[in-house]
Amino acid sequence: MSTRSKNAVSTTLRVAIFIAIGTTFLPMSAIARGKVANDPAPQKELEPPHHDPQEAVATGCLYRRDKPGDFALTTRDAKLYYVESSTVDLAAHVRHTVTITGTFVPDKDTKDDPDKNHEVPTISATKLEMIRKTCH
Predict the structure, then answer these.
(1) CATH topology of domain 55-132
(2) Rounded distance between C-alpha atoms, residue 95 and residue 135, angstroms
(3) Which of 4, 73, 83, 135 fits a disulfide with 61 by CB distance 3.0 to 4.6 angstroms?
(4) Backbone region of residue 78 per phi and psi (left: phi > 0; alpha: psi in -120 to 50; beta: other values)
(5) Which of 78, 36, 82 lies closest to 56 in space, CA to CA?
(6) What three-state secondary structure class fits 87?
(7) 95 or 44, which is more confident?
(8) How confident is the model over 43-62, as pLDDT tens digits?
(9) Is 33 exposed, middle or buried (0-12, 13-18, 19+ CB in 10 A)?
(10) Dihedral sign, CA of 38, 41, 42, 44?
(11) 20-24, 115-119, 131-135, range with the lowest pLDDT
């Protein structure tokens, strides 16, 4: 084979490799960038549902506090909530893992309960769902 023939084969082989790489990786990079010709126009992100800012939902372990009728809920991520309710039987679920649904109670005057840490939010429970009969 002459030098000229070898150069022609070498050039043809380079072009074939270039085309193979281009047709394989260029579409993949376009997909990675989110630019594909057949894709419809990008959709708007869905807005989170609008909730009442006072709505409260928390899951954790329900405990009785020092005073009768005082309860607290601790979540897995170590958040603490005081829980009160005139409609839900909280005492029946002490040391159970529960999901409490209700509303946040605005801070009360410290004269009402000087033992309460007013930095801890209070939930007035309207619904309780028992997840399990233990806290672990």
Answers:
(1) OB fold (Dihydrolipoamide Acetyltransferase, E2P) (2.40.50)
(2) 6
(3) 135
(4) left
(5) 82
(6) coil
(7) 95
(8) 444 444 445 557 899 999 99
(9) exposed
(10) negative
(11) 20-24
Of 89, 52, 94, whose CA–CA distance to 73 is shortest?
Answer: 94
Tokens of 82: 């005081």
Burial 4-29 (b: 16+ CB within 10 A, else e): eeeeeeeeeeeeeeeeeeeeeeeeee
Residue 125 tokens read as 């429970």
- Give the chain's length: 136
- Residue pair 71/94 in contact by the 8 Å Cβ criterion: yes
Q: In the block, which residue shows the tokens 């609008």?
A: 50
Amino acid (one-letter) located at 125: A
Burial bucket for residue 76 (CB in 10 Å: 0-12, 13-18, 19+)? exposed
* pLDDT confidence of residue 4: 59
Tokens encoding 92: 């029946």
Q: What is the phi/psi pair of residue 53, to 5°?
A: -60, -20
Whether this prediction's pTM lies above 0.70 is answered by: no
